[in-house]
Write a structure and sequence with these properties.
The chain is mainly beta. It has 4 helices and 38 strands.
Length: 564
Amino acid sequence: MEWRGDNRGQSVQVGAILLFATLIIALSTYQVTVVPEENSRIEFDAYQEASGDIVELRNSVLSTAAGDGVRGVTVKTGAQYPPRIFLVNSLQPRGSVETTNPGTVTLGNINGSVSQFEGVGEYVQEEGNVLDYPTKLLRFEPDYNYESGADTYVTNGFVYRDYDRPIPRASQTLIRGNTITITTIAGNLDESGYQTSLTTVPVSAHVNTVTVTNESAGPVTVTLPTRLNATDWNDTVLAGSEKVKNVTRGPRPDTVTVQLEGNRNYELKVAEVELKGANDDGEVNDPGGRYLVRQTDEYVTLNSDDRVRLVAEARDIFNNPQSNLAVKFNTSAAGLDLTTSTGLSPADNQIVRSNAEGNAVVWAVANDTFDSGTVTATLGTDTSGTDVEQVTFTVSEPQAGSGGDGDGGTSGGQISDVDDSTPTDEDTALVFDIENTGSSDVTVTNFSVSTPGRQNSGASSLNKLNHHNSPEVKITGGGTDGSADEPGNGNDFDTDGTTYSLDTDAVIESGSQASVTMQKMNSGDLQLTYDLTDDSANADVTVTLTFEDGSTKEIYLRVTNVNS
């Protein structure tokens, strides 16, 4: 028998091969065209999210610098592709966040003698009227497979993408109005991965604001490290800043110098923040103490119990308080001893540690043989400090007719603030009552307002008093009313500690109360909720009244809410 061939299955086999080939071609086409397109879109979205995370990191740095403590932020430094069963992804991109470009911010041609506290001027003068602060830039460096996103930098609050012309993502905080805010970055941050968890740690938060002006005829200058040129700073970073005269190339490579208007007072705030990985140990040490300022008056009188409280604040190079620093108080005055509490034996010297507000506190205690004498406070455990490391207090017996509360001289010692005399709700004016508790009339001749912002840094947004054609300051109801009116359209009283004269002196009679009104804050654009406090360490706003005999009385206001 002869068998015949059978090819009936060949068409099925050929069809299967063609179908498989078609599938392979489709997958290859998808791999070559669709997968890169999808992954590119994922990377683009990741880049946008990472830019937002860097802005959030910048905000955390600024919040930490302002005293809000340690904060944590997660930055999406990479991108994550979806799993593909029959297709292949590139390696997952892993970007990085790092501190880089170490340099120095230099504040030049400054004079600190206009500050509320005498020690500031001496410190600035000892530094040659130039203050240097080391810092670094913060950089996010993406490493995508398909997208070519530019690096993102943070410098003095300004966040930008580093293209040929910078693309801003958040505005600068260096110069705003008459306020200079220098936020330096420390630490050796270098984190990479799909996402990184970071921590901002305060090294020195700018809880203090000091007033500075130009030392010589030239402008106040701020020289800072940057990758941007002077044109970028003029046209983009500082565009619209009224107090900026010009930005020029700096004296060092990769620096610019910002020139500010001269013959003006500027409020200076300086802070240092460490950036590190969330699980890393801190590497930056506390800056230590640099100088002392008096938190009680230089000339004080004993209370009725023959004691008076003396407070010296220890500050670092950033002008901020430092805790746990040794301060030695000593006196050689006959009949005067020092003690840190009523339970300790008085002695002619005491070494105390500064508290959380940087304040070192002793009590001067007198006996019957005491008339007057001085107490010296020195930063450290000996008495060989430099001029800026020492402050002195002159203690004396109260004069006849003085209230003797240790808060000024004869007239100032008779004045006390009246509890619960501030507004219960937010207000555009500073309003409080004072009382003359002495046996003689007192005359108020001058006043000043400053915004130390020791508990609420938002109080520093108060920069002027202006009530247009009405008196900005009124002292009424105590006997003879007094007032001060800054004449002219648009003129105002600055709240930078500048002392102004009353147009009409106010007389507060013995045993009388007077109401003090200072209006309107920032021309009515600012409302504060506040109350009185006896502790200067809690003062956000300080009002100083000067009397005819040259003595003073400080009124401390603690701000609980800011509405601008």
